[in-house]
Amino acid sequence: MNRIALIAVALMLAAGCAAKKQIVLPMRQPARVAVPGSIRTLLFEDVKEQRGAVPGGYSADKESNATLVKAMMSSEFSGSSYAILNDELLEMVKKTGKAPKYMSDGPTVAADFLSQMIGDPGSIGIVEVEVTTSFGDAFTVENREIALTTTQFNPGGGNRPVVRTERISVHRIDVVGSVSAVVRIRSPYPDGKPVFEEKYDLPDFRYSSVEAAPSNRTFFGRGQAANQGNGAPTLTEVKAIQFKKLAEQFFKDICPSTKEVNVQLDSRGDKMAYNLLAEGAFPWAEMRLRKIGGAGKPEEQAANLYNLGISWEAQGLVAEAVTKYKAALDIEPGNGLFRRAHERASSQSSGK
C-alpha cells in the first residue's frame, strides 16, 4: 500500500471515530399511566377516610389520618419530577390574580410557574383520595413462672449459683395497619372529568415486639412497655409508613422514571448542539437544533435530526424523538445508528 493510500485510510478512520461519540444519558422513561401533559401540578384537596375494624386500641381519628395522608402524598410529590404549588399560595394567587412580589422578582422558576398557573388554571389537577384504613395495637401482659439464676456468696469461699423461680409479668405489643385507597385526579375545569383513577391495596403492616419483663414490678402499663425500647413502632409511625407507601405507588405510576442509556451522538451536524448534548444540557441543545432547522448539507441535516431526537428522548419526549429518528432515516436509510435509535424509542413509545 503506497503512502497516499495509507493517508486516505487514516483520514477515513479518523472521520469515522470523530463522527460518533458514545455517552451515557439519563433518559426519562414515560410514566406507566399517562396523565394529560397540560396538567403540570397537583393539589391534594379531597381526602376521605373510611375506618375498618381491627382488634386492639384503635381510636377514631379520621381527621388526623386524612391530614397525614395529604402530608405524606404532598411530601412525596415534592420529590417527584412534577412541580407543586402550596395550597395557601394558590389561594393567594387566586385572590390577587398575580404572584407574590417576593416570588416574582427576577427570572425565577417559581415566578414563571405561578404565571402559568394564573394564565392557565386548567394545568392544575385536583387529587381525590378515598382511603380505607384499619389501624390498631394490642398490648398483652402475661404472668409466667420464670427461673432466675443468681449468685450467692459462700462463707466457706467462692460464690455459688442459686436458682429460684419467680412469677413475673411479661409484655408484648402487636401493631397492625391495613390500607387500601382509590386515587383520582380530576380536571379543574367545570366538567370535573377524571383523567386518572387507580386502586391501591397495600400489604398489611404487622409487627410484634420482643417479649420483655417490666423494669418496675410494682407498677406496669402500656406507657412503660413503650418506653422500654422493645422496638415496637407507635400507631402514628405505622400510619406514616403505610401512607408513604401509598404515595410512592401513586407517583411511581404517574411520574416518568429515569434510567441510564448508552447512546452515540453524531458530530456531523451543528458543533454547538453536539457539545451541549455531550454535556447533558438537553433543553439548550434542543433550542439550538430547533433554531437551525433544516439548514446544511444532507448529512448535516440527518445528524441534526438524529441529535434532536436524542435531546427529546433524554427529556422524556419519546414520541417526538421517534419522528426525528424517522426523519433522519429518511435521509440516510442505511444508517444503523439511526435505525437502532428509532427502534429503541418506538418500543418505549408503544409501551413494549
Principal-axis shape equals elongated
Strand residue percentage? 25-35%
Helical region count? Answer: 12
* Secondary-structure-derived class: alpha/beta
- Straight-line N-to-C gap: 50 Å
Count of beta strands = 8
Helix percent band = 40-55%
Average pLDDT figure: 75
Uncertain stretches: 6-19, 102-110
Radius of gyration over all CA atoms, rounded: 32 Å
Major sheet: size, sense and barrel closure? 6 strands, mixed
| Elements, N to C (H/E) | HEEHEHHHEEEEHHEHHHHH
Walk me through what this model shows:
Among the domains are: 159 residues; 83 residues, Serine Threonine Protein Phosphatase 5, Tetratricopeptide repeat (Alpha Horseshoe), CATH 1.25.40.10. The protein is elongated and about 105 Å long. α2 links the parallel β2 and β3. Helices cover 42% and strands 29% of the residues. With 352 residues, it is α/β, with parallel strands linked by helices. It has 12 helices and 8 strands. α2 crosses α7, α10 packs antiparallel against α11 and α11 packs antiparallel against α12. The strands form 2 sheets. Strands 2, 3, 4, 5, 6 and 7 form a 6-stranded mixed sheet that branches.
